[in-house]
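Reminder to self: tokens first, then the designed residues, so the page reads top to bottom the way the pipeline ran.
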């Protein structure tokens, strides 16, 4: 049976994620937009289906044609006048290329006076892709796997992806026949940089070859230098005369602020510690350990429970062959850190409901997680070393499974610290 604190943490997470579901946010923004004629729609990312459905409902079905490109399992059925594509994430596959070609075919047929909505959410970098000439799908897969496992942050990963793509970094504008695009953006990028969300298909960014060279060398990515030279020589101009009107419909900041409000309503002293996490896991754990000690003292002095709130996306270098995702791995690392420290509960959860290549959203651990694993003769240390968080959390009864949520605004981390326990020296 779940303790009341564990129930509270799951409630805070689910309710705060509800606040960044695209339905209401899209409706609010569309009410401010004047639409000429029947619009066309392209929606990409893990939240693409929900965003497209919300837009369709707001426009009362007045859509000429649309395309949704989302992750496998994230479509919720047909939408009239839309073609629905599901494709690979986080690793690109042939379905991604086929879906992107369909989107290109649609927008190439449009006239300057036509209306085009471009709906963007996290995950679009893998789902929406057409590689440059000379790069195969297998090349892209290999490079993406290396990038994801290297410890590179999302900004670094996307810069390299843009180098190899015809549609990223504003490249999609080259194919569009319209003179204006209205973009609704659900951000999964720290700082909400439009050129980084889904690698910015309609936001031009000049390729910085020297920066990309640094990233490749830093993370030892196997990308031939002749590709860099070729891109410098063949970089085409982008159709920057197309006007892009952007509406931000959700972000990690909204999720964290909602979590703080819900935690306060449940009786916790809620403290937002960071809404733009992009540290390495090691750097975060060092800081978190100090914060844990500070707030344990505060909890004991004030006899009140605290809920610490973090949002963002930590980076980690994957070395093992186990099953898991970023949030799950963070959870078991913290389980090791708080082993034997009473009154500490820690949740790490992907807002989209799918953490890494698994069916889990994350993990909810406490000071007895490691003990529960020892009782089952399951080695927490081995799970950490092999990046096998999924099976460790299953054994401990600490795995969070929500299914796809329909949104994607980075990860949520919550930590409840209660009084009347003694800090471990």
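Designed residues (425 positions):
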């Amino acid at each position: 049976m779940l303790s009341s604190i564990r129930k509270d943490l799951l409630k805070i997470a689910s309710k705060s994620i509800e606040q960044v579901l695209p339905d209401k946010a899209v409706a609010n923004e569309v009410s401010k937009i004047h639409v000429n004629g029947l619009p066309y729609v392209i929606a990409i990312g893990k939240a693409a289906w929900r965003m497209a459905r919300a837009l369709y409902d707001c426009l009362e079905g007045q859509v000429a044609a649309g395309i949704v490109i989302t992750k496998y399992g994230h479509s919720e059925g047909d939408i009239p006048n839309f073609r629905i594509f599901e494709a690979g994430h986080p690793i690109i596959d042939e379905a991604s290329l086929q879906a992107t070609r369909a989107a290109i075919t649609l927008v190439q047929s449009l006239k300057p006076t036509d209306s085009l909505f471009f709906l963007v959410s996290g995950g679009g970098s893998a789902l929406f892709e057409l590689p440059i000439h000379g790069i195969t799908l297998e090349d892209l897969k290999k490079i993406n796997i290396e990038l994801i496992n290297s410890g590179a942050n999302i900004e670094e990963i996307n810069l390299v992806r843009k180098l190899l793509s015809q549609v990223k970094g504003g490249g999609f504008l080259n194919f569009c026949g319209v003179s204006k695009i209205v973009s609704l953006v659900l951000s999964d990028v720290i700082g909400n940089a439009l050129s980084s969300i889904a690698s910015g298909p309609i936001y031009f960014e000049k390729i910085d070859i020297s920066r990309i060279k640094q990233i490749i060398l830093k993370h030892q990515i196997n990308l031939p230098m002749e590709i860099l030279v070729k891109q410098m020589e063949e970089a085409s101009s982008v159709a920057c005369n197309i006007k892009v009107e952007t509406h931000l419909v959700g972000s990690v900041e909204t999720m964290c602020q909602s979590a703080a409000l819900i935690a306060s309503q449940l009786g916790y002293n809620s403290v937002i510690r960071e809404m733009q996490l992009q540290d390495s896991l090691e750097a975060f754990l060092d800081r978190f350990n100090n914060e844990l000690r500070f707030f344990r003292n505060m909890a004991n002095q004030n006899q009140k429970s605290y809920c610490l709130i973090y949002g963002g996306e930590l980076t980690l270098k994957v070395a093992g062959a186990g099953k898991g995702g970023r949030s799950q791995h963070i959870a078991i690392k913290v389980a090791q850190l708080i082993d034997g420290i009473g009154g500490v509960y820690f949740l790490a959860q992907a807002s989209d409901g799918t953490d890494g290549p698994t069916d889990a959203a994350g993990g909810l651990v406490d000071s007895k997680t490691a003990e529960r694993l020892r009782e089952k003769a399951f080695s927490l240390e081995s799970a950490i070393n092999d990046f096998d968080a999924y099976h460790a959390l299953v054994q401990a009864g600490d795995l969070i499974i929500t299914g796809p949520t329909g949104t994607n605004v980075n990860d949520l981390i919550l930590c409840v610290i209660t009084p009347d326990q003694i800090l471990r020296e």
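DSSP finds 15 helices and twelve strands in the chain.
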